[in-house]
Amino acid sequence: MSRLLALLCTALIALTACSGSSAQSGPKTLRMTVWTANEAHLKLLNEIAAEYKAAHPDVTEIKFDSIPADGYTTTLTTQIAGGNAPDLAWILEESAPDFVSSGALAPIKAKVEKAEELVPSATKLWEKDGELFAYPFSTSPFGLFVNTDLVKDLPATWDEAVAAAAGKNLVLPDFKYQNWAVLSAIWRGWGAQAWSDDGKQCGFASAEMKDAMTFVHKAIFTDKAIPGPGTTVDFFAGDAAMAISQISRAGALKDAKFGWTLLPLPKGPKGDYAVIGQAGVGVLKRSKNAETAADFLGFFTNAANSAKLAQFFPPVRQSLLNADTLAKSNPLIKPEQLQSVVIDGISKGVVKPSHQGQEELNQTIRAALDPLWKPDADVSSVLDGVCAKIKPLLERS
Amino acid sequence: MTFWTYRRRDNLVGYLFVAPALLGSLAFVLIPLGMVGWYSLNEWNVLGGTFEFIGGENYQRLLADEKLRDSLVATAWFAAGLVVLNLTLALLLAVLLNQKLRGTTLFRTLFFSPVLVSLVAWTLVWQLMLQPEGSVNDLLGLAGVDGPNWLRGESSAMVSVIVVQVIKNVGLNMVLFLAALQGVPAPLYEAAKIDGAGAWTRFTRITIPLISPTILLTSIITIVGSLQVFAQIAVLTQGGPGTSTTVLIYYLYQQAFQFHHFGYGATISVLLFVIVAALTLVQWRMRRKWVLHES
Fold first, then answer.
1. Interface contact B258-A99, CB threshold 8 A
2. B28 interface with A at CB cutoff 8 Å
3. Which of A169, A286, A382, B187 has CB atoms 3.0–4.6 Å from A240's, for a disulfide?
4. Cα–Cα distance for residue pair A136/A138, rounded to 1 Å
5. What is the pTM of this model?
6. Which class would CATH give A150-275+352-396?
7. Which parts of chain B fold into alpha helices (H)?
8. Which residues 198-217 of A have a C-beta within 8 angstroms of B?
9. ipTM of model
């Protein structure tokens, strides 16, 4: 009986997990998972797809499958586990190390048009052994959005920003006291890092991190500039003086009823810096149509289409990274802001922290940081605690 | 002699009748159950597409996993809090609503209605109400109490999750208790009254023993249900603050679906299965001791 059961299970696994490595002939369909459900985004994506289909009659359908950003990676990996992997997928920067190192993605360098003009700081995360495993289609620097109705003197340093926002809210829309990696947009100004570049050493207990987090803690509980845990304040509805967010969010300000401007991140004790969030699009190796999918990816990200995508997703092609080109597709943002926040940001920015086994690190750090979000927290000992918890995880990889 | 004897034909009809149900439970219960057991003996890297037999390694890991211990403690707290609060409240409501008074039907409907509400919608509304400036704290403020940040404190988060779950489901147990109460023969109470038994004595000596089969049933349902609570945790606390509300099933979800350790996740679900089976067995065995009669 047990042998029969094992046999049955193996057969089922074979059916679900290992199906479809053989190439398919005849009409082909492609499916790409994306986390946007924004109509304008999807319209552009479908236009690009329609153009590709017109030139390639054997491709009968290219479907963009919107999965909510919240839980995106979990849904994607569940699809893969269930034998229902998409052909192409958007991938968040934090999952990049897992996807790139696992061998889940097919190499795409040969298919990328003029791969040599991609900004090296932006492709680093998606490379292994000199090969590119996903195209960084969106590289979005963090900036400081300021509501000019509420703030008259524009801040240049973190101290000025917190002073100006006291009682008027400086929000980090994606943080929610969960997504701690967003705080890297602040702590980089102190020269702090979540972990060393090789990913082996924990950086939370460093003096720089302790100074930066003391500053954040004070901004929340003493200066009352950053809204406390459980409080939601919407900058894009005009309820907050400032927001630290990615410039791809500027679209939400199209119909803003208040004056606003976009500044580079304020200077920290270590001076100027920039932090970028990234998204790549890769081809799943397990796809039946991996070859076609890679070909479509090459088309999707060629110079002409990158220019179109640039209105929503900041590009990584040198030829597009100038204020004039970007201004055409970003009417909401002034050329000098594009230069200081986007172009300078992309070239000198560091990407938000990411590591192999990121999700486990995320949850462990989130849990270890929770005691920090209380008025009487001991910042230094909480941060030492974070390192104690994640040390085994960093050493594992 | 023909092959199709009367008896064989009769048996075949019988098998055909049970076949749909048998196939259903085979496809949706037994095979998945077997597969979970098989997965737990393997290391399954979903992204890399590797599936490797590792024997008992996942089970060894289970024994050494500190986070699992935390999560078992959280599960025990949750289950204990839920069962005690749910059963007490359900019995209290049932006794109150078992009176022949005006308006009891309205209150019965009122207390039962949360059972019908979509779980996630219910939890989302409570999430808003439990915010620091939410309506729960507004109400407490009217009474002069400065309410805590419910979902951010370790013990208050656990209390919140339990209370939200109890209010959601107490109506179900209440209805079961009501039915049981109405099955208690009235002459017993009359006889006890004549013998001079007070209200409390009548409750503990007549009501409780006579509804004990229902108490057993509701406690099994509630305990098993408490071990499977997921959506409330996922919406309200995501297992936090710290790991204070990371109950076993949420930890299982994290390991399998968030951390991509599907093999280890399967191992945890085997553990969960064993715990549920053991608890049910113990309660079932104990029924002889404290269930007075069985109909």
1. no
2. no
3. A169
4. 6
5. 0.86
6. alpha beta
7. 6-25, 31-39, 57-64, 66-97, 104-116, 119-129, 135-142, 154-182, 186-194, 199-202, 208-226, 231-236, 248-253, 262-290
8. none
9. 0.82
